[in-house]
Predict the 3D structure of the following.
Amino acid sequence: MKDKIKNITVFYDGNCPLCNWEISHLKQRDSDKHINFENIHCEQFAAKYPTLNKQNLDDILHVQQSNGQFQTGIDATYLLWDTVGLGKWLAPLKWKWLRPTLKYSYLLFAKYRHKITAVLFAQHHQNKQGSNNE
């Protein structure tokens, strides 16, 4: 792993099953503890981060770097996975010719993530129950 920004904070939607799945995988991979994980729906969140707009954080993934700068959306996603050594798998997020499409797709996903994940996780749960009944 090349030089990384060592301490970053991800502000994530703890009410989103897919978001929690991704956070869980990031936590497993973050053996050096370079990422601070902050659930924006945690009771203490507003007191801990009074200057941050929770609605903005809920609208799109935010990562704050140790220098105070924020990355959002696909840039935040890439930074997170690169920090845990898996940036090469998300290299297409950095391809200039593909970025406009990916940014637009990400914004659509972020807007409808609760509906999308409700369907995906309901189907997954249904498939699991079906296989347990056989």
